[in-house]
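Review session, final week

We close the course with one last complete record, chosen because it touches almost every idea we covered. It is Major facilitator superfamily (MFS) profile domain-containing protein, a protein from Amorphochlora amoebiformis with 446 residues. Go through it on your own first, then we will talk.
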Amino acid sequence: MDSQECSEMSKGGGGSKEMCGCILKRHAIVLMCALCCLVCYCDRVIISVAVITMAKEFGWELTLQGQILGAFFYGYVLSQVIGAYLAKIYGGKLILNLAVAGWSLLTILTPVVAKISLPALIVCRIVLGFSEGMAFPVIYHVFSGWVPKHESSRSIVSLNFGVCSGTVLAFVVSPWLIERMGWEYVFYVFGYSGFAWCALWQMYGKDNDPPTTSKKGKDKSISFSRFLPLLRPSTLYCIYYCHFAWNMGLYITIMWLPTYLHERFNLDPDQTWINALPYLVMAPAAMCWSFLVDRFLARTSTLNTAVWIRKTATAIGFIGGAGALVLFGGCTNAHTAVLVLSLSLSLCSLSLSGWEAAKLHALDPSETGMLQGVSNTISNFSGVIGVPLASYVKKTTNSWHAVWIMCACIWFSAAIIYAFRIETPRKEEKQSDVERPLKPRRNASL
């Protein structure tokens, strides 16, 4: 059953078997996309563990390591809108498959390229980032047609669950592979896992992936007017900044935590599995928060109340996470530090059920993928800026605590901006007036 048939069934009040089939298919799509995020972050994070051993072999100082880790984001910010645009024309299945295959191949080639020259490695990381940059806009394009409003928080947070699980897997498995087989095999093992996902995605979607069915979706022309709806509303600027702030703290933590624990607490590379704990805790915490927020949203009948719920989730998440992050920088014991960081990321993950989930219903569903592309483009400058900035702050202040305070201030500012600048409806509009049907829209496609 394809998405168009699901939509027709929704209008005609189809039978329970057909409705059950639609629900199961929707959940399967969400699961596959979450697994894609898991693979994405495995291939992104492994270098932050491997770079400790690679730096000793190739003689890289801290500033140079920051440039290598940050190179990924130069490519990442360039492909966000491109990915959304291609998904809108050709469908999410094809573009997502090509993107995953591309970054998996580049992950496998990383050890070879690293031994050729440093510039070659940096170019490889930029192109790898370009491939990974297409993933989230394409996934949001898919979600916009399949995910109903009352499941938006949990569906979005399921992607974060995949992100956290991929980060945990990378931090746990990478030290083991490095110790027993060498740092090169980290890239080989995780790179081939991406091709395994491609095979599953290809088999799953072989009979139900029509290209975008609407005439609007098939329009291949590009004009600046298409981006105006993504640049005008002040609400979207708040979402963009929250995304930037979230990524700033998350990317600095993911990329520099192994090095921080190694320098601050003398943890050896084979002990860096402890880096996984914060993300192991954050994943189920974010999922629990999302179910709680969705439950509140399901019980409210007005749009004003729904906006207030999103604001509250965003504020509590960012402010709570920022406070715990400051405490994390002052910890004098490695295990205590990791526990406090786990608390920080778990609290901050509540904000995802606010500003992030709001994206699915901020604009017409046909523009959701493009919205995520623009948002990811803006927000991922935090990786371009933040990862090397962290090494600069550490070098100039000789203090990692200053790095974590900087991240906490950015999170706090996001909470204030979203709370006071987000627009609320001028009239008491019923939430049901803006909800989409429980079945996918006619133009929903993989």
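Two points worth writing down before the exam:
The chain has a mean pLDDT of 81.
Residues 29 and 143 are 8 Å apart (CA to CA).
Good luck, everyone.
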